[in-house]
Amino acid sequence: MDAGRVLVDGEPGGRVAALDRGLAFGDGVFRTLRVSGGRPLNWSRHYERLRADCALLALDAPPEALLLGELSRVAPAEAVAKIIVTRGAGGRGYSLPSGIATTRIVAAFDPPLHPRERATEGVTARRCAWVLSQQPRLAGAKTLNRLENVLARAEWDDPEIAEGLLGDAGGRVIEGTMSNLFVVKAGVATTPSLDRCGVAGAQRARVIDLLTTRGVRTEVRDLSWDEVADADEVFLTNSLIGVWPVTALEDVRYAVGAIARMAQRAIEEDDAAV
Amino acid sequence: MDAGRVLVDGEPGGRVAALDRGLAFGDGVFRTLRVSGGRPLNWSRHYERLRADCALLALDAPPEALLLGELSRVAPAEAVAKIIVTRGAGGRGYSLPSGIATTRIVAAFDPPLHPRERATEGVTARRCAWVLSQQPRLAGAKTLNRLENVLARAEWDDPEIAEGLLGDAGGRVIEGTMSNLFVVKAGVATTPSLDRCGVAGAQRARVIDLLTTRGVRTEVRDLSWDEVADADEVFLTNSLIGVWPVTALEDVRYAVGAIARMAQRAIEEDDAAV
pTM of this prediction? Predict the structure, then answer.
């Protein structure tokens, strides 16, 4: 990684204190987003989520203009960007030290991204053996405590499998390791409630808004594995992939559906509008 | 903090890559221990736990001799030491990148420690409102995903309250925010099972061993809040505090008991033996 593409509190160099509380405890939050045409896409929802997650942890959220300025410094016209806010460096134990400042990391990566065919032709997903823990106090937040996602993602290395789906101990389907899930049945688009676990992606929020605006009934509620198997359409969302229709999940096959296509077009239009 | 007292992969300076996976995801493990007379106390149990936790995350554990050498470089005769092993720097998403090396952090702090009276006269503890999430796959491990401990510890700032106790959603008592819990009833010392959540401290393991050796019956099993309230003795253990008898927990009062005293003496003897 080019250290010039990482700013730590506005300074290039890409290093942080080894005992920053972000590393010591995962005491912080982050966002991953796409920059295209020099603009961070879906920015207002990303910043809103970042601010909400900071508030949940009683962290000062960086001002929006500061982040936008730093994104423009590190990110080329087409990039993946990551923003991290940690509690900062100071103290040793769990007690919150007084008078320390948050650490702000703004980084840019080459847009990988993924093969375009995953959006057009759909992907194969699997069901992970990993079962997500439930913590209502942190559910939905994108904190730096992401070891569950790492270990769930480590369950497979077949490049033909694009994503793994995760459920909780209550038999509910929650999300993908790096994405949110939607299922469509009889024209209704449903995405799992994230009241107990899971990460509420900015793309998920946008897809809910865009589909609703276009007259699709959307629901946020608990969802069972049987409902996923029985769906007319299944698709995945995140800020880098956009919308990936799922065409295979274990032994179930799905067609690429009209609602997934609608969501893809709606995102393109929303990104094009300034 | 004196940067000379932090080694990162053996080098002084105290900085790590801002996007180290330890910070990005909490993808790593750690130990906190006490150094006294120039020796890391209870070392064999610490190293055993570190190696087990590394194995759980499929991380290469640093060789024991390497860690001991680095501890002797950074830690004065009396110190608190912290060892962190992360997945390392590399990749962006949750997938495990190939060919990256772990990051090894060895740091020393002044021994705070805590007022000696906490061990001799006992402490006041509280019951935290925070409810621990349950993740059997990670239970017992000391991973860098410690946001729950941070937020539980943030519930109070009364310096007279030395520790907060945490339970799970099943009504079981698990641990303190930074310590393990023992209760004594009718001469039997019981510490909660850590099969669903909690951190299995090296001091807890030692206290179980030392009490057992001295003829005290010890049990590791699920424990209810009612059993804690009804106990003859309650005490807390970790590698920095040793053993703190609890003399007040919410509206219940306890005497400093014989088993807590026995555990304190046994630890002193064990630390003195070379």
Answer: 0.97
